[in-house]
Write a structure and sequence with these properties.
Elements (H helix, E strand, L loop, with lengths): L9 H7 L3 H7 L12 H7 L4 H16 L13 H34 L5 H36 L3 H31 L11 H31 L1
Helix pairs in contact: 5-6, 5-8, 6-7, 7-8
């Protein structure tokens, strides 16, 4: 592909050009939960300059193609390999990061919440997100992913239907957690700490930005690759 257009979806573009996710986040273009919507629909909804965004996107893509990149075609790898990749690169990350980052969010709220009211909402949002993702990943690992692996070995229509029903519930949960992350980005001004923020404040925002990146990639792989293949 040489040029992306407004007729492409963000999910399709990120599969081909993973770095596009950075540009999409900057412009609040959903590439995971709502990744199947045509770009032109998002341009109209968000009042974005279509020409400017596409120009920046395609310029970045042309530069990126000249570099040495290996992009895994997740549409073709075995389902078990895809599931294991999600667990080891996203679920384990959440298991380790959510409790540790929660301590930072709470610390910053206690120290600065009295004169920065948005930190109260951030504290609530983060901990709602934490609980939701802990329960969500547990459901995937204990209930859904074993079914996917079994289906790859012994496919049947009954098993496929069971997986599809479970995936519908998971996608609804993705929408909810995706909305939480989007709201966190808004109230933190894109995870940008103020000029005189202390070290803990800066670390908290940096790790929230990393959490957002990892989670959006996580949801993208499930919604737009794994679930679609099933």
């Amino acid at each position: 592909m040489s040029t992306f257009t407004a007729e492409h979806t963000p999910a399709h573009i990120v599969k081909i050009f993973p770095k596009a996710s950075d540009l999409f986040k900057e412009n609040q273009i959903d590439f995971c939960c709502g990744g199947d919507r045509l770009l032109k629909e998002t341009f109209a909804k968000n009042n974005l300059d279509e020409t400017a965004v596409l120009s920046k996107l395609n310029t970045a893509y042309e530069s990126w193609k000249k570099e040495d990149h290996h992009v895994t075609d997740w549409d073709t790898v075995p389902l078990t390999e895809l599931v294991d990749h999600i667990i080891y690169n996203h679920h384990i990350y959440l298991t380790e990061e959510l409790p540790a980052l929660g301590e930072f969010v709470t610390k910053v709220f206690r120290k600065h919440g009295s004169d920065q009211p948005h930190l109260k909402e951030l504290h609530r949002l983060y901990h709602d997100f934490k609980v939701e993702m802990e329960e969500h990943t547990m459901k995937e690992e204990q209930e859904v992913f074993p079914l996917v692996k079994e289906y790859e070995i012994n496919p049947s229509e009954a098993l496929l239907q069971e997986i599809r029903e479970a995936n519908g519930e998971l996608e609804e949960e993705h929408d909810a957690t995706g909305d939480m992350l989007k709201r966190m980005r808004v109230i933190t001004d894109g995870f940008q700490p103020h000029a005189h923020a202390c070290g803990s404040y800066q670390i908290t925002y940096a790790r929230l930005a990393e959490l957002e990146e990892n989670t959006f990639q996580h949801i993208h792989l499930e919604n737009n690759v794994l679930f679609k293949r099933l």
